[in-house]
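Let us practice reading a record.
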Amino acid sequence: MTGRERILAALRGLPHDRIPVTTGYYYEWVDDWKAAEPSYRRLVDYCRANADVLHPWHPKALDEKLFMTSSSEVRVEWNRRTEGKIAYLETLVHAPGGTLRKVVKRLPGAMTDWTVEHFIKDDRDLETFFSIPYEPVHYDCSGWEKEAERIGDRGILFPGFGDPLCNAAELFEFGDFTITAMKEEKTFRRLLDFFARGVETYLKAVLASGAGEAFRLVGPEYATPPYLPPRLFEEYVVKYDRPFVEMIHASAKLVRVHCHGRVRAALPMMLGLGADAADPVEPPPDGDVTLEEAFSLTGGRMALCGNMELRDIEMDTPEELERKVRTACETGKRWGRFILTPTAEPITVPLPAKLEENFMRFVELGRKWGA
């Protein structure tokens, strides 16, 4: 089978020749920097040749002023500065009711960002946010055919999007988010309602373009224990995301829900949401459910993707790594709807030699034990 056929068969619960083995959220991990980073070159080439492809794609937002609105009453300003080797990016959103400020930093040797100041820090910031008018964003969905052609039959293209919860939660420092979501439900729903309009506009544009075979929905992990109780997963995820899942299914496409952490209580609710797949189904101690238990909870009615912690790929001995990959593959083969995937991507620069070696071994072992 081709990678494309294999992945779609696993997602749909149809017979396939072996468990798909993917490298994460992008078949060569190109956030532009990995393809150009010399220490990643050998691993990128190896995974291109040997792994199945789950390739994200996003349309270009032509007039977004942040927060999924194109309102002319919003103006965005960016300022950069450095302190030694640490880089900082300040974002100022000038709205009718005031200015919101966010600051992120990037450390050398780790290609990721840390938010050190969030947009909403107090009630005044909340009122400033609610002064922002919603105006639909216009999207340029051209170009997806070229990306699909580049992948060919090695895998599938999947558009991704943050759901209303994802967009709302990331406005706050995490502790402030959980307090607001639990104690100020009416206020928090106002935020969800605002972003729901933006998500609907985005989905209508992408679905009309015909892009992708499966969508990746990001955000439900913010409502899992210990952050929020299961009652609020139903309120903030299922109720808000079900209309989007129905829109995607109406276009004969699939939905894969991204949700790190403790998902034991959430998996049955994902079925109620209509999800066709869930990732990354982290094993204990990072998660609270084994892969066998996760399949039992869902009854094989949706595909499960992931189950291999990046930390283990980075740190395990060859014997430990093979044991974990073999166990996951044997479980996945019994249930029939499994895609072996790391729970995260490497971000360290330069790429450590052991991580490079173990990542190649992970792909090789997945192909071996998934057959």
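A brief commentary: The chain has 14 helices and 13 strands.
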